[in-house]
Amino acid sequence: MATRTITGNLAADPDVVQAGSIKITKFRVIENTGEYRRGEYVEHDTPTTHYVEAKFELGENAAATLQKGDAVIVVGREHTNTRGPDDAKQYGRTIDAENIGVSLARAVAQVRRVVADDDGQ
Q: Alpha-carbon distance 63 to 8, whole Å?
């Protein structure tokens, strides 16, 4: 798995799903991409969609903080997922988030630290 850093906007509010004994926060990030041609930046016609999953405290904090349209920065490990029945499998890339932040280039944020309980949790 390769480490990736992406920036973009949330396509929808995060979705929290139960996966066995843990909760996973899932969301999509839409990234406008492009390339330099003859010294000028040219945006691609279609933005890139990234699927992101966050677990444990990171996922809980993302679900409590983020909403559709928020500008974010995501760092994580990217891998390929398969979905659907064998005769119609679809393949997609998913980033297992290690860090998620609000992009201060396009937003103002107020940081509130999470304090551990007395029993260390």
A: 17
